[in-house]
Design brief:
The protein is an alpha+beta fold and about 160 residues long. About 40% of the residues lie in helices and about 15% in strands. Strands 1-2-3-5-4 form a five-stranded mixed β-sheet. A hairpin with a 2-residue loop joins β2 and β3. α3 runs parallel beside α5. The protein is elongated. The two termini are about 25 Å apart. About 25% of the residues are buried.
Length: about 160
């Protein structure tokens, strides 16, 4: 999978499937419109409104849609942290910092020094955030480590 929202340049390549099922929205054009609207979501509030709109129009969201919305929240969180890339590579979760000036270097060094975190710093403002989680929810949870080192921008 690769998801790149309009505006902020964030490349997500996490290997999770997040397709809108035809059984939920039969029309190809309507599914494409939903994908486009999801790509334009800029806040958690907009994501919630979008979810409510879909449920009102098409009924209860199927399981596949939960993954789609979790991926949307991953994109929003990555944007808040100023990440330009979040990807699965070699069984690890990798992130590239687009705004290294927002990183608290002292806190980052403490996290890297603590073997329990699994965080490693690589050249090119790249972080290894530990083993790749098995679920999108696990990725979202792992991103919370960045709360300790990155000053997030306003949503």
């Amino acid at each position: 999978d690769a998801a790149r929202p309009s505006g902020d340049e964030i490349k997500l390549e996490l290997g999770f499937s997040y397709l809108l099922p035809e059984s939920y929205i039969a029309s190809t054009q309507q599914r494409l419109d939903v994908y486009k609207r999801l790509a334009e979501v800029k806040s958690d509030e907009e994501a919630w409104e979008m979810r409510q709109t879909l449920e009102d129009r098409f009924g209860k969201l199927p399981v596949e849609m939960a993954t789609l919305f979790t991926m949307l929240h991953i994109r929003l969180q990555a944007s808040r942290y100023g990440l330009t890339v979040l990807e699965r590579s070699g069984g690890q979760l990798h992130a590239r910092l687009g705004h290294p000036d927002r990183v608290d270097v002292d806190r980052l060094l403490k996290l890297v020094a603590d073997p329990k975190t699994g965080i490693k710093l690589e050249p090119g403002d790249k972080l290894v955030l530990g083993p790749m989680p098995q679920t999108p929810e696990g990725v979202l949870e792992r991103l919370k480590l960045l709360d300790r080192i990155v000053n997030p921008k306003a949503a």
